Amino acid sequence: MNMETPHRTPARTGLLLINLGTPDAPTAGAIRRYLRQFLSDRRVVEFPRALWLAVLYLFILPFRPRRLVHAYEKVWTARGSPLLAISRDQQQALASTFGADVVVGLAMSYGEPSIENALAELESAGVRRMLVLPMYPQYSGTTTAAAFDALFAALRQRRWMPELRTIGSYHDDAAHIEALATSIESWWQAHGRGEHLLISFHSIPRAYVEAGDPYFCQCQKTARLLAARLGLETGAWSVSFQSRLGRQPWLMPYSDIVIPQLATARGVRRLDVVCPGFSADCLETLEEVAIRYAADFAAAGGETLRYIPALNAQPVHIAALAELCRQHLQGWLETPAEDAAEIAARLQRVEAIGPTLDSPSLR
Ligand SMILES: C=CC1=C(C)c2cc3[nH]c(cc4nc(cc5[nH]c(cc1n2)c(C)c5CCC(=O)O)C(CCC(=O)O)=C4C)c(C)c3C=C
Ligand SMILES: [Fe+2]
Ligand SMILES: [Fe+2]
């Protein structure tokens, strides 16, 4: 047997970024494939299984993809879906921040790049210890736990599992709040400031929070810390929840209801909206907020709704994420000099003996 003996390659540390996933193309077929996988996840939809599959296959998959084509087309870039393009930029920026110390991989819970492929790439780069960062500042079973489920399912298929550490949330991380505030302040410096800042998070069904999901509280804490850091007075900011689906109650107040009300009931003319639950811009921010909610606000008599971009691959974001990861990588990054010398000596001895699975010394 002739194989590359893994004991000759030094163990490396990896960082795996996981985001939600997005269609491969703005076409009904690609969107259907994506929604089928995403909406079949029991973490995302907790409805009784048979009933939900009937709804999904009879009422959602035949119609929703076609309706979404136009929405995805509006935000699609030369590099594909914004969520994927920005995630790649984040991966590259973190890779250059860490240099040779850490191999940075990227995967999506649904679609491509798949977790299976990302794990295979990290393994072939020699990664034996891996920090996993779901790109959701606020923990939710629907996103963070779903990413971990997909990761652990993929790891079940691998013979040699890496050592693992996971980050559950970073909603109140000081560097993260600072990055959000700095990004908003520089946006205000460039574009001027609205009369009200709406902090809009993706909604989830209210029942999940009642059953113990910490998402609602973590969103409120992020918003509170951010407003305090920005020095906003009560009344100059508020929190709402966007992108709900279906008829059951989701976390409230709903962004699509609050936004026109800010114009009609509160007389807000210039509204700024920021979405700190999204680490990268995507359909839900670029189309739903920046295009659709902006039109709703104008129709309700508002002058302008401006969407403040997500942290994306901005240097402040990359620095904050790198700092967060460094805290979780403690003990994995430093190889003391005497250990390095010992490892080198051991590798030399191994080279000299050169065992293979069918060498006589092993029989
Ligand atoms: C049906 C249940 C859904 C739950 C629960 C949910 C939670 C949730 N989602 C995000 C982040 C994103 N969602 C995105 C799109 C999207 N989300 C749902 C449904 C649920 N999300 C659907 C059906 C879709 C597809 C688009 C649509 O049909 O409206 C995206 C963007 C993907 C893209 O391609 O750009 C992100 C990101 C979070 C953070 C969250 C709960 C905390
Ligand atoms: Fe979603
Ligand atoms: Fe949506």
TrEMBL record:
<dbReference type="GO" id="GO:0006783">
    <property type="term" value="P:heme biosynthetic process"/>
</dbReference>
<dbReference type="InterPro" id="IPR019772">
    <property type="entry name" value="Ferrochelatase_AS"/>
</dbReference>
<keyword id="KW-0479">Metal-binding</keyword>
<keyword id="KW-0350">Heme biosynthesis</keyword>
<keyword id="KW-0963">Cytoplasm</keyword>
<feature type="binding site">
    <location>
        <position position="202"/>
    </location>
    <ligand>
        <name>Fe(2+)</name>
    </ligand>
</feature>
<dbReference type="GO" id="GO:0005737">
    <property type="term" value="C:cytoplasm"/>
</dbReference>
<dbReference type="GO" id="GO:0046872">
    <property type="term" value="F:metal ion binding"/>
</dbReference>
<keyword id="KW-0408">Iron</keyword>
<dbReference type="InterPro" id="IPR001015">
    <property type="entry name" value="Ferrochelatase"/>
</dbReference>
<protein>
    <recommendedName>
        <fullName>Ferrochelatase</fullName>
        <ecNumber>4.98.1.1</ecNumber>
    </recommendedName>
</protein>
<dbReference type="InterPro" id="IPR033659">
    <property type="entry name" value="Ferrochelatase_N"/>
</dbReference>
<dbReference type="InterPro" id="IPR033644">
    <property type="entry name" value="Ferrochelatase_C"/>
</dbReference>
<comment type="function">
    <text>Catalyzes the ferrous insertion into protoporphyrin IX.</text>
</comment>
<dbReference type="Pfam" id="PF00762">
    <property type="entry name" value="Ferrochelatase"/>
</dbReference>
<comment type="similarity">
    <text>Belongs to the ferrochelatase family.</text>
</comment>
<feature type="binding site">
    <location>
        <position position="284"/>
    </location>
    <ligand>
        <name>Fe(2+)</name>
    </ligand>
</feature>
<comment type="pathway">
    <text>Porphyrin-containing compound metabolism; protoheme biosynthesis; protoheme from protoporphyrin-IX: step 1/1.</text>
</comment>
<keyword id="KW-0627">Porphyrin biosynthesis</keyword>
<dbReference type="GO" id="GO:0004325">
    <property type="term" value="F:ferrochelatase activity"/>
</dbReference>
<keyword id="KW-0456">Lyase</keyword>
